[in-house]
């Protein structure tokens, strides 16, 4: 039995705290992305492997405490843990599903609570369970409580990704909570007045500038991207936590040099493969 789980690139988010972990979460907007991570149960030893490497993940321990069972899972993905694309949510959802069993929605609620307890994410689980391509979290919380609206994007869009810093989610939440709430709420309202890809990417750029993320972009990379925007190849670029994302209308050969991971918007949510 395997799961196919999309990645999630959040561009604007507004964190919310509540006494209940089911009500804690975030509103915000981002892209649901393919290729999907493919996850499956494995013989125990190491609890979690990502692309063949044993990984210690705090949310794995949180899931085990919540379900009082241990599952061991392998994940194959084009991206790494810490790239800001919802990998901890993918791992938590997989561990909860293979420990607890179906339905997927129940495992997703467990995964969300594990993310909240661990400080590793506040909205990725709801987005990857809903699908996209544009996923807008209108109401925060765990799946079943969160409200997610979906919007289309044009065909052919490509998302080029490159890691540029080592900022972690717990550090980001601790250091920037107030600024994220203030600027995120402003830009989410602005985006929802015209929920298009162009406006979403601009919101992501303005958000990452306000939080200071853009300073991580190397000057040489910035020059290349600015030239591609001038030539009409890119919509724009921004930094989400530790990953630089360049959104293109189509394939961009200049960014296919091995430094970049190429993904594309995906409409379908997490699903059972077999």
The pLDDT mean sits at: 94
Question: pLDDT under 50 segments (min length 5)?
Answer: none
Write down the Rg.
18 Å
- Strand segment count: 12
**Level-2 CATH architecture of the largest domain:** 2-Layer Sandwich
Helix content estimate: 25-40%
Question: Counting H and I runs of at least 4 residues, what is the number of helices?
Answer: 7
From the 3D structure, determine the CATH topology of the largest domain.
Ribosomal Protein S5, domain 2
Note down, in words, how this protein is organized.
The chain has 274 residues and is α+β, with helices and mostly antiparallel strands. The protein contains seven helices and twelve strands. The protein folds into two domains: 2-151, 2-Layer Sandwich (Ribosomal Protein S5, domain 2), CATH 3.30.230; 158-263, Alpha-Beta Plaits. Helix content is 35%, strand content 28%. Strands 1, 2, 3, 4, 5, 6, 7, 8, 9, 10, 11 and 12 form a twelve-stranded mixed beta sheet that branches. Helix 1 (58-67) crosses helix 3 (104-118). It is globular.
Quick overview of this protein structure:
This protein is α+β, with helices and mostly antiparallel strands. The protein is built from 7 helices and 12 strands. A hairpin with a 2-residue loop joins β9 and β10.
Write the layout of secondary structure elements.
Elements: E1 2-16, E2 25-41, E3 48-50, E4 53-54, H1 58-67, E5 73-76, H2 87-100, H3 104-118, H4 124-130, E6 134-139, E7 147-151, E8 158-163, H5 169-192, H6 197-210, H7 219-230, E9 234-240, E10 243-248, E11 261-265, E12 271-272
Parallel strand pairs: 3-5
Antiparallel strand pairs: 1-2, 1-12, 2-5, 2-6, 2-11, 3-4, 6-7, 8-10, 8-11, 9-10
Helix pairs in contact: 1-2, 1-3, 2-3, 3-4, 5-6
């Amino acid at each position: 039995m395997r799961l196919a789980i999309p990645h999630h690139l959040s561009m604007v988010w507004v964190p919310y705290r509540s006494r209940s972990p089911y009500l804690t979460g975030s509103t915000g907007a981002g892209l649901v992305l393919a290729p999907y991570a493919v996850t499956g149960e494995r013989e125990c030893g190491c609890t979690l492997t990502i692309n063949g490497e044993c990984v210690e993940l705090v949310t794995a321990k949180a899931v085990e405490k919540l379900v009082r069972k241990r599952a061991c899972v392998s994940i194959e993905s084009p991206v790494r843990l810490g790239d800001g694309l919802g990998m901890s949510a993918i791992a938590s959802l997989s561990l909860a599903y293979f420990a607890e069993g179906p339905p997927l929605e129940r495992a997703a609620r467990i995964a969300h609570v594990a993310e909240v307890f661990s400080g590793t994410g506040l909205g990725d689980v709801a987005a990857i369970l809903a699908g996209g391509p544009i996923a807008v979290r209108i109401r925060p919380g765990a799946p079943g409580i969160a409200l997610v609206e979906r919007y289309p994007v044009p065909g052919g869009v490509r998302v080029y990704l490159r890691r540029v810093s080592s900022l972690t989610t717990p550090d980001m939440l601790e250091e920037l909570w107030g600024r994220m709430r203030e600027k995120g709420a402003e830009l989410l309202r602005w985006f929802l007045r015209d929920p298009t890809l162009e406006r979403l990417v601009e919101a992501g750029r303005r958000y990452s500038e306000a939080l200071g993320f853009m300073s991580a972009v190397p000057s040489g990379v910035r020059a290349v991207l600015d030239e591609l925007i001038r030539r009409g190849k890119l919509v724009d670029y921004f930094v989400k936590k530790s990953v630089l994302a360049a959104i293109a209308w189509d394939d961009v050969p200049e960014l296919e040099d091995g430094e970049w991971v190429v993904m594309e918007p995906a409409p379908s949510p997490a699903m059972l493969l077999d």
